């Protein structure tokens, strides 16, 4: 997966997809507090109850005119964060679908593809890139057993990639994500550190001096980049199906707001007052070292250890009983050929639900399952 | 509606929304032939049959796992084409909904709002503009009796506005749009010339010398601009409901590809070989004169008379029996307080279906119903 070669595809040697944007992947999101403030206009429409889910969670769930049926729907769009348009297509589709999967909805009835074609591209570049992107998007949709039937394509200064996933589901197909109880454990299905992996690989390609400055190991960065491409392309669909089998009490997917950001969002909607306490951080191998060195040099290290580093097409974060968790992890690992971990627990709280990462959280270095 | 005053809303006097993009409204679309070529990857998914509709038409219609139900879905996004963010919100919502309405689907079960917030905006500008935009979008959604529950907001070099409209409809709620027969007439529910109105108003505001060069009447341009804002904000919902009552045989909405472009798209999917012959062009008052003067000066006049001038949130183009057409127009006019016209007829054709505008088409100048 590493080392997209523009020449093989008929592009100039120095063609770089990620130069077509100044923001990467889910890092482009407008901050949550700004968003919520701007969305106050909708406040009367965004009631949290049994039937509808708040805009900060993953998909909207809408009662239909037809008994027992719900419309489950999500949209996402962002910018290229790796240079291979085919991989970007897969990642975009996986990332959009993930919001359905986070609700336990494993059947997507329709995908729309959203595409902004960068105005700086000449026609030949445009055709090559868009074709590869569409192929990747379609392959991921095929794997998800859904079809792309519709979309919109506009010209845009940056290459803009996205989609809309829709399912018309029986209420029984949807996991209630607000039932976490003290005693539950928290499971994470992909390691964090994606933003570090993508950015350190950029430094390497751009030869901007960062690698030398931080004295980093190039081969480890290349390995991490392959790993993050694999995990961003991997669908959370098996993880979604197993939510039902193992009776998950809460779930969300980890994307632009980082592990702790999404844990906080999930905590906030719980019916009981609970605290999500995260005491283990599974991190893509070597990414913790990079973050450490950045922090030693006075940087923020992408706020990785604070759980604020953005993930694109990250894993599911699930609350379920401890016994179920072990079986969930075992079965998921055997289906996806990739590990998952118990990263914390749900404890009682006397007032508003929150999430936190303990100060001495164990860092676990995760080697690519490839 | 004319004359958005930035100062009233706390913006700098010289703040101009449409400067946040280099493309306007539906004019930003990637040309249809390019699009179809790029979408070849999907060809196996885009079968035209009784259940599914081609990507070039307005909404995708997808059979669901639940008997008798169809998922009808559409998405659109584009850039500001008028400077009033509130009006742009209304227009964006109306334009997205229009693709459902073109299929006769009058009940939208959910709207997603898509928003790219221009990176050049400072926080105060951003908050003012986004709030006004959302308010306009929401007011149009209220009028359509639907709700906005979900969406995505990213930073983007240009201000990007869009939405996704979804309906889960009984098959009986959906008009079969491929049943035009010789003898039918063609009805149009909003005049063309929107692109001319929006652009000539820009010339006036920008004082770029075009007004003097073409010797244009400022007050007529201002009047046309009000008219186009009104008609772009007007929902095609009543027009959609009446498709059922008057048993329309075919329908589409007129947007980025212009009147003839959309007539061609509609002709192409008809079951019978037919020709759509357009012999009348209802044009927003004075816009024909502007186009004429541009052509006299060696320009293309937005290709208005060729039916290629882009419309944003344009009217429906409907084929139905002549008797029904008159009743359709009467009832629609009384509901919307705005006229509609028979603009042509459906005739036999021995081979592939096409659409054309006759050389001596009558130009009808349409005065604002306001």
Automatic annotation (TrEMBL), chains A, B:
User: Sorted alphabetically, which keywords does the UniProt record give?
Assistant: ATP-binding, Kinase, Nucleotide-binding, Selenium, Transferase
| Keyword Nucleotide-binding recorded | yes
Query: Record's InterPro entries?
Result: PurM-like_C_dom, PurM-like_C_sf, PurM-like_N, PurM-like_N_sf, SPS/SelD
Ranges for domain PurM-like N-terminal:
58-157
> One Pfam family name from the record?
AIRS
Keyword check for ATP-binding, yes or no: yes
**One GO cellular component term:** cytoplasm
Where in the numbering of this chain does the PurM-like C-terminal domain appear?
182-354
A Gene Ontology annotation in the biological process aspect, one of them, is:
selenocysteine biosynthetic process
One GO MF term attached to the UniProt entry: ATP binding
- PANTHER family given in the database record: INACTIVE SELENIDE, WATER DIKINASE-LIKE PROTEIN-RELATED (PTHR10256:SF0), SELENIDE, WATER DIKINASE (PTHR10256)
Q: What is this protein's name?
A: Selenide, water dikinase
The organism's lineage? Eukaryota, Metazoa, Ecdysozoa, Nematoda, Chromadorea
């Amino acid at each position: 997966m590493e080392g997209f070669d523009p020449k093989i595809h008929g592009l100039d040697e120095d063609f770089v997809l990620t130069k077509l944007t100044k923001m990467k992947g889910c890092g482009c999101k407008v901050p949550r507090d700004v968003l919520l403030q701007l969305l106050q206009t909708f406040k009367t429409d965004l009631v949290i109850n049994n039937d509808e889910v708040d805009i900060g969670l993953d998909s909207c769930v809408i009662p239909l005119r037809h008994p027992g049926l719900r419309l489950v729907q999500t949209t996402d769009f962002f910018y290229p964060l790796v240079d291979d348009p085919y991989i970007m297509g897969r990642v975009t589709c996986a990332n959009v679908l993930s919001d359905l999967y986070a609700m336990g909805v494993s059947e997507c009835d329709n995908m729309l593809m959203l595409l902004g074609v960068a105005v700086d591209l000449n026609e030949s570049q445009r055709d090559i890139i868009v074709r590869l992107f569409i192929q990747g998007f379609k392959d991921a949709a095929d794997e998800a057993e859904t079809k792309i039937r519709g979309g919109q394509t506009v010209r845009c200064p940056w290459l803009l990639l996205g989609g809309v996933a829709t399912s018309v589901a029986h209420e029984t197909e949807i996991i209630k994500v607000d039932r976490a109880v003290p005693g539950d454990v928290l499971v994470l299905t992909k390691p964090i550190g994606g933003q570090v992996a993508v950015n350190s690989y950029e430094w390497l390609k751009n030869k901007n001096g960062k690698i030398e400055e931080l004295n980093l190991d190039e081969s480890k960065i290349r390995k991490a980049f392959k790993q993050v491409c694999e995990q961003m392309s991997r669908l959370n669909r098996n993880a979604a199906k197993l939510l039902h089998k193992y009776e998950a009490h809460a779930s969300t997917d980890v994307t632009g707001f980082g592990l702790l950001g999404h844990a906080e969002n999930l905590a906030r909607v719980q019916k009981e007052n609970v605290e999500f306490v995260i005491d283990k951080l599974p991190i893509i191998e070597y990414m913790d070292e990079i973050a450490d060195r950045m922090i030693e040099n006075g940087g923020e290290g992408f706020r990785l250890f604070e759980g604020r580093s953005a993930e694109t097409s990250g894993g599911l974060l699930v609350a379920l009983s401890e016994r179920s968790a072990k079986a969930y992890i075992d079965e998921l690992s055997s289906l996806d050929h990739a590990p998952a971990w118990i990263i914390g627990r749900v404890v009682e709280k006397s007032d508003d639900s929150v999430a936190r990462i303990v100060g001495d959280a164990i860092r676990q270095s995760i080697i690519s399952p490839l």
